[in-house]
Amino acid sequence: MMRMASFTVALMVIAATITIRVDGHAFSHHQEVKIRRHLKRLNKPAVKSIKSEDGDVIDCVPITNQPAFDHPLLKHHTMQMRPSFIPESDSTYINEETKTINQVWHKAGECPDNTVPIRRTKKEDLLRPKSMKRFGRKPHHSIPRTTTFDPTKGHQYAIMGARNGKFYGTEVVINLWKPYVQVPDEFSLAQTWIVSGSGSGLNTIEAGWQVYPELYDDNRPRFFVYWTRDGYRRTGCYNLLCSGFVQTSNRYSVGGAYNIVSRYGGTQYDISILIWKDRKTGNWWLRVGKDIIGYWPGKLFTSLGNGATRVEWGGEIVNLKTGGKHTGTDMGSGHFADEGYKKASYVRNLKIVDETNTLREPKSLYYFADKHNCYNVKTGNAGTSWGIHFFYGGPGRNVKMAGFTVALALMVIVSTIAVRVDGNEFSHHKEVKILRHLKRLNKPPVKSIKSEDGDVIDCVPITNQPAFDHPLLKHHTIQMRPSFHPRSDSTYTKKEAKTITQVWHKAGECPNNTVPIRRTKKEDLLRPKSIESFGRKPPHSIPKSTTFDPTKGHQYALMSAMNETFYGTEVLINLWKPYVQVPEEFSLAQTWIVSGSGSSLNTIEAGWQVYPELYDDYNPRFFVYWTRDGYQTTGCYNLLCSGFVQTSNEYSVGGAYTTVSSYGGTQYEISILIYKDRETGNWWLSLFNDIIGYWPGSLFTSLGDGATIVQWGGEIVNLETGGKHTSTDMGSGYFADEDNLIFEVFVYVVDLTRPTTLILSPLPFKPVYTTTTQYQLQSHYFSTIFGFVNIKMGNISSAQSSSPSLPIDSTFDLPSPLPSWPSGEGFAKGVIDLGGLEVFQVTKFNKVWTVYEEGQDNLGATFFEPSSLPEGFSLLGFYAQPNNRKLFGWTLVGKDISGNSIRPPVDYLLLWSGKSTKVENNKDQTGYFWQPVPPDGYSAVGLIVTTTAEKPPLDKIRCVRSDLTDQSEPDALIWESNGFSVSSSKPVNRGTQASSVCVGTFTSNPTLACLKNNKFDFSCMPSKVQIDALFKTYAPLIYFHKDEKYLPSSVNWFFSNGALLYKKGEESNPVPIEPNGSNLPQGEANDGLYWLDLPVASDARKRVQGGDLQSMEVYLHIKPVYGGTLTDIAVWMFYPFNGPSRAKLKLATIPLGRIGEHIGDWEHFTLRISNFSGKLQKMYLSQHSKGSWIYPPEIEFQSGGNKPVAYASLNGHAMYAKPGLVLQGRDDVGIRNDTGKSEKVFDTAVRFRVVSAEYLKEVEEPAWLNYMRHWGPKIDYGREDEIRGVEKIVVGESLKSMFRSAVNGLPNEVFGEEGPTGPKLKRNWLGDED
């Protein structure tokens, strides 16, 4: 890399020399200017300044001039001087009051009214951290990760938390100490976290006390606040060190030091913190003790706009491992939790704010301490005035930890003694291990061939090769030849590759019915770090086009095809002998056939590689590879584990080549064809038209349905030896823009519909490469003898390329035209009056800007301007959609019919701009995102995207009068990059009575408003006749699994065939139910007095359990959505019985006894219909206690119509859009949801009944619908016993833990511990599905 190194060094030397000679103080002056600007932003002009004895200067700044209002989202913010309410507690005990603790500066004075006390930032404060940008900010890893926490990140915790709910605040009392902090860069704190979102969408609100010498230049405990909206990346800060938090108190300084702390064994002091969301304004308020301090404006956040999903309390420290040892920094008091009151630090009176704005004790708490020998947690006794409380903390490096070190030293001494007693003891153990491994790999040959390159090739009987040691292949019948060989339908003659022999061919050949296997030697097993890693790739071995992290060591230059299903590939790969710097690195060129992701990633791979550690030389060798779990525990190179079945006696996988390409000279290639045999499911490999062997289909999971990605290209490993980038070559070692051909690909993909045909692929090719300057890729689309795509590996070139073809480039429409709906009042008339503002739903768009990376499936997103507006209508915002599905969407446009309902903006605010990848016109384009600045009394409801830096015309868009708008929140993420994100939006207020209207535009931060229907009179809702027509048009076909024993029935059939009504206290005298349910108790609450059950007689009970598909009917609930602009048809189905669950434990399927069984099972799906046109917008499928929305492009439709197809899972009856297995769990362990097509199928259009439409008087609700009690009895079948019974046959604690986690994640209704309730008690009856 002379080119890179010399250029970089020269540039640095020249720049440094010029700067110093021109002005010796240039750098320091530049820094001084930077510091002054930063100080000016932070230190606002004060009406009074107070010098505190602790060295602080407190500036009393006018409340309207505080730093908060520098934030672009708060430019026009109206300050809220007091909250709308303060949450009240439902506790029956009296809280122990906290002692008031003053801050040190209070001794020197106080700030006047209408000012806020702000701790002045000094020049020295900015110089202490590593950079000014990091001043006052936390690093990324500053939120406790209770399962994935990595202590190498430096942060360690001892906390308790609540999750799995919606939280709107917390109150907590935190013990105050002055912990020892070892070095200034470390800190120790105690706080509460209010959390929502994850990754770059993480939102937090935090408050507590901390000792942080680097930030404050002392070791005093100080009150602090913090916030972030992007996972601590670019937003948020401590206290008022950036704009955001709005302070209203003139008494409390955030960042101010406390004047008194707790003493070990003596008086204890604590601070009471209350944080809650003002549901009227969206702001999050802070109270300390009895003082209201201020608030975090709701506009700052994204996911927290809808409440928090997690609340945590406890301690945190930073461990920098100074001197290579764990820090001695204290957490809390510096004593372990076991010491208890007055010795250990405590957190008491834990409460959360619920959806009713009530303070109550949280449920389902968890605790977490990641370094128990240094810091721990212990829960306190219940039933005291302290409520829920715990002790936490510790001294950091301590005797406990030292004890562990001593024990470890003793182990070392003992092992040393063992070596002295018998010097060969350890080596003997390893020797045995090596011999066993060699025996597994090196099967007895009928002949051995010594090759001139040092290899020994064993000719092993074909039936005795390593493949058949695999447990899945114990009874495998070898397939000697494929069922077919794909042929090409190309119209041009393909360039044929010259046949290249392997080195061992010179020394002999293997007999028929044997396979040539390269012998593994003892030295081969000793080279890698462990025997277990021999012949295996690390987990990071599949290219990720946008999330690839070069620090992982793997770097790529390749192309890929995606977004279709592939059954193979053919490719010609140029053969070279690249230089590899160190034995542990490699350089290769290959093809990847890929399906799945994460731990379910399946790959098949083949190509050539130079890998000294594996082969003990630097020769290029042919290789194969496979994995079924993302390179975790399965798969290997060549035949170094069981799996790949070789059938050829002519080619050795792992064998070296005799000849390679030369720079400027003769070029050599290898021709690889991989394809799936659709008759057997095996994946065959052909090399130079010679069949080599196959990967049995039973090895794979997701590849059983074909591949979703095919990739071709180069890969190297960069270990940064000596701290520098490796000089390992990729390909020829020359850049892609050199005239010499480095990597040539003749790309085919096996046709889906003609599995015996190879077709030239017109697929969405996407270049993939690392972001370094060491390797480039150049792609050309041309028709020559080289075929469709020619790839050159090397540095990223500016060569001409074409934009990828994506799903978004095609517009989706329903399979059949819409019928003419029966006449009615306002339904499907095209326009809806919201009360002075008419809106029209636009479904046609003009593309404005496309980005091809990030977002869903890493395919980017496209932004559109609505087109074909009716006369008199104006834009309210643009439309955006991820690129991973066909274009299908809408936005509303508006027409003023009152004279002042809409107005142009007065200006635009630029939210973001950035470079995209190559777009379709082959020019670099920049997308600019503009937010309209509305006139007073108006609100923006949409954004504009342009491709120029010039502001859009003011008359391009309209803002809406504020009384016609309501609050909205982000819905589904569309795209994000570098902290900027856009999402679809939805109203905050949703449900049958909510008047909020979705605009269909996208939103960023801050969240925009939505519309509101001030004329919400149901006039645009469908009539009964129109409902019937709608459902007959869109009524889904429901497929049940072929093994389904527990089918649905009508409710009347269930009642007529012996269902019984039980009453508490009268269990011995159940009452038969009338066929129409007229004798069921009506209304009231679910008080537990009544429940339904199956017939008592065993024959009748068994018959009713099985249901009756012939009687089945579905029950429709018609709901207005989004202010009556949409209609939800919720379709309910009744099953008399829910069958038992089954678990998948890696390769095994295990019945779970009675887990999952319960009587009376209600399932549903929902069709969402546009009231503008009657067109299907999307479909919701319920899945146990959750569900998912499916858009029409993702729906399978019945042939020749607009009726969707859905699949009910075996026994559990969850609804899915596609057949197959959906696993509730991870890593191939979890609860099975199996679906598939069978003869058991029901057309919901055949028997349906509208049972509820509150806005239609003619719809009479059946009596059973208003039965509000349980539809099944409470069952106690020993849930824990059932789980333990399964665990007995599960091998390994890790597998048991994963299994238990998957089972415990199921809702109670699945366990059957409580009988299910009817439709009217479900959350979505009056609310939205999500």
Number of helices: 14
Give the overall pLDDT as a whole number.
82
Shape: globular
Beta content comes to 25-35%
Rg measurement, Å: 34 Å
Structural class label: mainly beta
> Tally of extended strands?
72
Unreliable runs: 1-27, 146-152, 402-426, 545-551, 739-774, 776-803, 916-923
Distance between the ends:
54 Å
Please give the largest β-sheet: 10 strands, mixed
Helix % is: 10-25%
Provide an overview of this structure.
By secondary structure, the chain is mainly β. The protein contains 14 helices and 72 strands. A hairpin with a 2-residue loop joins strand 69 (1220-1226) and strand 70. It is globular. It comes from Brassica carinata. Residues 149-400, 548-799 form the Neprosin PEP catalytic domain.
Summary of the model, kept short:
The chain contains 14 helices and 72 strands.
Produce the secondary structure layout:
Layout: H1 2-22, H2 26-42, E1 48-51, E2 57-62, E3 88-89, E4 115-119, H3 123-127, E5 155-167, E6 169-175, E7 188-196, E8 203-211, H4 213-216, E9 222-228, E10 246-247, E11 270-277, E12 284-288, E13 291-296, E14 308-318, E15 345-353, E16 358-360, E17 365-369, E18 376-379, E19 390-393, H5 399-421, H6 425-441, E20 447-450, E21 456-461, E22 487-488, E23 514-518, H7 522-526, E24 554-566, E25 568-574, E26 587-595, E27 602-610, H8 612-615, E28 621-627, E29 645-646, E30 669-676, E31 683-687, E32 690-695, E33 707-717, E34 748-750, E35 757-760, E36 765-769, E37 777-784, E38 787-793, E39 831-833, E40 837-842, E41 845-851, E42 861-866, E43 879-882, E44 891-896, E45 902-903, E46 907-915, E47 926-933, E48 938-939, E49 944-946, E50 959-961, E51 965-977, E52 980-987, E53 996-997, E54 1002-1003, E55 1009-1012, H9 1024-1034, E56 1037-1040, H10 1051-1056, E57 1060-1063, E58 1071-1072, E59 1090-1093, H11 1098-1105, E60 1114-1121, E61 1126-1138, E62 1142-1145, E63 1148-1151, E64 1158-1170, E65 1176-1183, E66 1186-1190, E67 1205-1208, E68 1215-1216, E69 1220-1226, ...
Parallel strand pairs: 3-16, 22-35, 56-67, 60-72
Antiparallel strand pairs: 1-2, 2-4, 5-14, 5-17, 6-11, 6-15, 7-8, 7-14, 8-9, 10-13, 11-12, 12-13, 15-16, 15-19, 18-19, 20-21, 21-23, 24-33, 24-36, 25-30, 25-34, 26-27, 26-33, 27-28, 29-32, 30-31, 31-32, 34-35, 37-38, 39-40, 40-44, 41-42, 42-43, 45-50, 46-47, 47-49, 48-50, 51-52, 51-55, 52-54, ...
